Amino acid sequence: MSRIADLNSDDFAALRQKTLNEYEAFRARGLKIDMTRGKPSPEQLALANGMLTLPGNGDHFSEAGEDARNYGNLQGLAEVRTLFASTLGTSPERIVVGDNSSLALMHDCLLWAWVKGVPGGAEPWQKTEAPAFICPVPGYDRHFSILEEYGIRMLPVPLKGDGPDMDMVEELAADPSVKGMWCVPKYSNPSGETYSDAVIERLAAMKTGAPDFRLFWDNAYAVHHLTETEHQIPDILDLCEKAGNPDRAFVFASTSKVTLAGAGLAFFASSPANVRWYLASASKRTIGPDKLNQLRHVRFLKNEDGIRRHMAAHRTLIAPKFDTVSNALEKRLTGTGVAEWSKPQGGYFICVDAMEGTAKHVVELAKQAGVTLTPAGSTSPYGKDPHDRTLRLAPTFPSLQEVELASQGIALCILLAALEKLHSTRNG
Ligand code: PMP
């Protein structure tokens, strides 16, 4: 396919008509496919069915002899923290095991910082005049929603393929009202990119105007590889410590997309001072986490190799879905000059940059044809994409056959929206 912007008016009109016809035919199929959220499919959840009967009747003691049925052990069972230490890239004593949602832990940390402040801070964040967070874009909508909920300003910074634009980040972080930054350092949601070592080193070492600045380091996709290459990132806690900023990073992760999305384990990891701070706050909220679920995870996954094998089984199920989307986009859009898309090596999303000013239209066209996409704009703060071009595709939940149909339709919608936009420009 040649670049659409270069077509003469006859060829352009012919392509537009052909694409419209194809779209109508696609719409007439009356599909109903949901590609909105990064959810595991039923087949992926079934990989963890063995957990449903664990830890088993009578098996409720930890290695240290704690009764997992009872209250207590706010930090989480030692064997669980050991099991996930390498996933989190740090040592067991720096890890806290929460209940089933890392997003809840992020929310709690933000709220505690807001109400009470964090180690190294002179006052609660709410006392700061117009506090702000740096938000790499495209980003995760639920991160942005937490900030919006508490009226924290969002400062968008573009991602560049190997992490955020660090010159911009350093400039923004120098302002004392900038209290933190969201980071999804590996297989980012939704761009799929992994931060380079150089970017991570700069984040750990940069000067911040606020002494109590925090990186909210959401390593949600730490072990979620889509290829045989298991990309690794440096230990942010170690780098922060070496750079003289030991308390800078709050690390989060969970097994939502390892075992069960609704019944996994969530983790917080940080410096000793931050872990003490976290546990002191958490102790006012709960008498202890669900340790039976913790035991269940240890019994099921067993060791690091068990996690690796389990993730390989996920990969077998989902990598073909990512390939299918990629093939459909390539087939319809390569060379047209109207879209670019990510080829993620891990994580849960494919990110498409459609022609500027068309993303909302693409989502609407897809909806009319029975394919529901994440709303356009959701990857930007306040749900507003100033370029109206970024689309997030989440191919894990539907079946492979549905993903195939949906992605053919999505590619068609991207092309049609671009043609319609160019048509109106060409016709003044
Ligand atoms: N962080 C990121 C970057 C995510 O993509 C998701 C899930 N879509 C979450 C956090 C949610 O994690 P949890 O289920 O542990 O709350």
From TrEMBL:
Alphabetically sorted, this entry's keywords are: Aminotransferase, Transferase
Which GO molecular-function terms appear in the entry?
A: L-aspartate:2-oxoglutarate aminotransferase activity
Q: Which residues cross the membrane?
A: none
Organism superkingdom: Bacteria
Signal peptide extent: none
* The protein's name in its UniProt record: Aspartate/methionine/tyrosine aminotransferase
- What lineage does UniProt assign to this protein's organism? Bacteria, Pseudomonadati, Pseudomonadota, Alphaproteobacteria, Hyphomicrobiales
